[in-house]
Design brief:
Blueprint: H1 6-14, E1 19-22, E2 28-32, H2 35-41, E3 48-52, E4 58-61, E5 88-91, E6 94-97, H3 98-104, E7 107-110, E8 113-116, E9 125-126, H4 141-146, E10 151-152, E11 161-164, E12 167-170, H5 171-176
Antiparallel strand pairs: 1-2, 1-3, 3-4, 5-6, 5-9, 7-8, 10-11, 11-12
């Protein structure tokens, strides 16, 4: 089979033929509307499957790769993670709210969940919330500030002070006296 130009691939895409058997020499073979059909048709270990998008770009899926047969399955967002339009998720290395990603056409709603618009990419994944690696010492300058105290750093750690009743007292003395 010949090598196809992007405009020809767009034509195939518009006809609903979005998956191709990739021959051993790298050319595209038969076209199919779904991944499973293309995977079954090219059953030789050297025949991969190509998925094309609406712009004529192709992604080649290696038959020898783990998870090859999971590629064509519809990927839904995890039902254990409640999401709404304001949830911040990551899709195709883009992190934004679900509402924004829907407007941009990267995801679409299916029932009570969201899926990627192309059906091939991984599902929307909630973005990781930033976490502190550890909590600061409650008696450090930052720890006292987080607890609502005003602090005054000294030249050395032993000279750091905390405001108690309008007066700045050394933190070590305030701790020893039970004031903080």
């Amino acid at each position: 089979m010949p090598h196809y130009a992007p405009s020809q691939l767009v034509g195939f895409y518009q006809k609903g033929l979005r998956f191709f058997v990739v021959n051993e020499d790298g050319t595209f073979g038969e076209a199919y509307p779904d991944f499973d059909s293309a995977a079954k048709a090219g059953s030789l270990p050297t025949h991969d499957v190509a998925a094309i998008n609406s712009e004529g770009s192709a992604v080649i899926y290696d038959r020898q790769a783990p998870g090859f047969y999971d590629v064509g399955k519809r990927r839904l967002s995890s039902p254990s993670l409640p999401m709404n339009e304001d949830t911040v998720v990551t899709v195709k290395e883009v992190t934004a709210s679900i509402r924004t990603l829907e407007k941009s056409g990267l995801i679409k709603r299916e029932g009570d969940t969201w899926v990627t618009a192309d059906g091939i990419s991984p599902p929307p994944v909630p973005a990781a919330t930033p976490r502190f690696p550890h909590k600061p010492d409650p008696y450090s300058l930052i720890g006292l500030q987080m607890r609502g105290f005003r602090v005054l750093p000294g030249e050395m750690a032993v000279d750091d002070r905390v405001e108690i009743s309008g007066a700045f007292i050394r933190i070590t003395e305030a701790r020893a006296s039970g004031l903080i």
